[in-house]
Amino acid sequence: QVQLVESGGGLVQPGESLRLSCAASGFTPRLYYMSWVRQAPGKGLEWVSGIVDDGSDTYYRDSVKGRFTISRDNAKDTLYLQMNSLRRKDTSMYYCARRSVDSWSYDAWGQGTQVTVSS
Fold first, then answer.
1. CB within 10 Å: which end of the chain, N or C, has fewer?
2. Among 90, 80, 86, CA closest to 55
3. pLDDT bucket at 104, cuts 50 / 70 / 90
4. Nearest in space to 21 (alpha carbons), one of 98, 80, 92, 82
């Protein structure tokens, strides 16, 4: 059974940092492109960052470039998102997602971890 379990969210003040983790099981994560996707209250899903199967290439939406870093440890079947200089607009539910090997769609999602940035 494919499972993605996120952790590490919380309440922080603007300018602070958080590190999200996503533990994968039930499949071989090193074979897949993985992403972090977020959803703010009342808004749609927003892709945040992606990483290729071996971790050699990473991608970010413009608003998080220079502040967020995606990484993966394939030996531990875990995906990470280091978030620095957090802003109120980063407040969202953050999901990790597995991209299908034969399409651009995402075929597995975690339950999400809430990140709230507020003073």
1. N
2. 80
3. confident
4. 80
